[in-house]
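Chain X:
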Amino acid sequence: MRILINASNLHIGGGIQVADSIIREIVNFPQYEYRVVVSAAVRKELGGWSGHRQIRIVEYTAKPKLSSVLSGRDAFLDRQVKEFSPDAVFSVFGPTYWRPAVLHLCGFAIPHYLYTKRDTPFFSRLTFKQRIRLMVMRWKKLRIMNRNAEAWVCETDDATERLQRLLPQKQVFTVSNSCNQIFEHPERWKPFSLPESSAISFLAVSAYYPHKDLSILVKTAAWLRQYRPDFDFRFIVTVAPEILNVPEELKAYVLCCGRVPLERLPSLYQQADIVIHPSLLECFSATYLEAMKMKKTLLVTDLAFAKDVCGPAAAYYQAGNVVSLAGKMLELSRSPDICQALVQQGRNQQKKFLSPTQRVHTYWQLLERLSSQHQNY
């Protein structure tokens, strides 16, 4: 079977790490032939990795163009299909603005289209204009999704059920996320230097998007300095300082270290005491599994998507509530027994999710099954 892997539309965020993990894993499935189309961002993450002789990596950064949106055609990607003649295309995440001339399986991870204001406080923060724009984009992209792929993959059963209701004529499957295999190979880890500190370090690993609610960390730091001035803490956040806009008087408590390369991420986890993920909207976040893998206490929002993944392996605070977050920070900092119990629960919880090899094996099994159905049809 010939598989064209499409990661040309990934530019920022966790999707790049997922693509990196999947692409590195395909060397374990030499029974297939591959052509891999990657964006510049994914190519940078891969570094000098080239796989084996049955893998050809091509760099191309797809950008939404009106012609592609309307027709589903992309001249470069169409040429790859014509030259390689794959049996199927697997797009790591969509929606893509491209409809290949062969079977297309596409990953999905846009929670904005799956959840409502009943599920998360995120939507109540949007202006009327933003809500209208989101409704229009959702309608447009669901039409494109219906046109451009035969089947879709989500990373949790809850997301799969929600997407299936939106795309009733498509097949939607669940294949869980996993930690990037870098966490299994300490020999590949590189150090990441943080300023020395006696403070309790709360690590937030995230790209900057409004739904990640990273601004609550700045607000919480201000609250703690005012009402708990004796509490020695610091937030470590993986965004650039100019993005989070931390006031000068709080910079000692909110350290913005910028985007951290994948091979330096384990080192960053090692230097943290507690991992915090304040997101108000997710399909899945690898941060949950990475923290469990690195044996760190997790502090996350009390929303369904977080509870679905973390279960008993995390402490929860009321999403978007500064006082609730500050209270949980203080509680965990004074309760090493609770932290240790959560870490132990994390060891058990992570066993419920696929390894990188198992994830790719499941993807390719799906493609085999879908290809057979497609041919019979």
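Chain Y:
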Amino acid sequence: PNNHGFWSEYDYPLRPGNDDSYIVGVFGGSVAQWLAVQAGEYFRRKLAGLPELEGRQVHVVNFAIGGFKQPQQLQVLSYFMAIGQSFDLVVNLDGFNEVVLPVVENFPQGIHFSMPRSYPKVVSSITSIADEAMFDWLDHGLKLREKINHWANMSNLRFSAVYYLASTALHSRYQGLHDEHMRSSPEISGAERNVFFALASAEEGFERYQQKTRMTDLWVQSSLLMRDLAEQNGAMYLHVLQPNQYHSAKTFSARERLIAFKPRHPYSRAVKEMYPVLLKKSSGLTSEGVNFLDATPVFDDVEETLYVDSCCHYNDKGNRI
């Protein structure tokens, strides 16, 4: 990670020191992060090959972190612009975290849908009120995520059928353990809630379906504000709805079905219910002049394996596509 905790070869703000640079900022959660990290060089070459960018030095720069959801992308963009980061193109690849994480994590804990993932625990863990259970919970979650990434990579290596089956089984096991771990965080006491205004509770008197409507409205409004910030500072803005296996017409390989689908996964239910809402709400973005791309069909004609877990992530070819 760089000086601001992002996976990047550059410290931020990036100032190339020449007038021919073309800076592309990629914003979002882990899918956007791995797009920038795994396919960043491919993306850079594709852009550099455009006639409009002939002679420009293209930089694809990661401003995404796993678990980020709106309004975090908006906050990241405004923060880095405020400290002097310039952009020529802002790409916001999101949608999944915005509809899944509030439903699976925020609502059950009584936390407002706009609050970041696991935010009560993150905030509490860096204050004097943190306890050992809190640190253990955060540490164990990171270790499980490391194991998931390790076995996802191992399952893509073609040593033997037996090795593939073993690595796939281990990947699936650690993914399940991680999902369960994220749903069983330590209890938040009333005293912890009151230390920071940021630990906002869900709005009293609002039914869950109303909260879901409000969270998709937040997605739209955050994108409009990102567009305004980008364009007012001389950058183009592109908003992309990320593909996901639970909202897809793709023909999945047998291997991919084993990796990418988990029976009764809570993410599956949230995506199936809320992705159609995002697509409906996206018409409001396009009517406001936002460059919006529905990327959910981009894998429809690809039969080979692209997904690497039961959440949302793609292998190298998936990221290039």
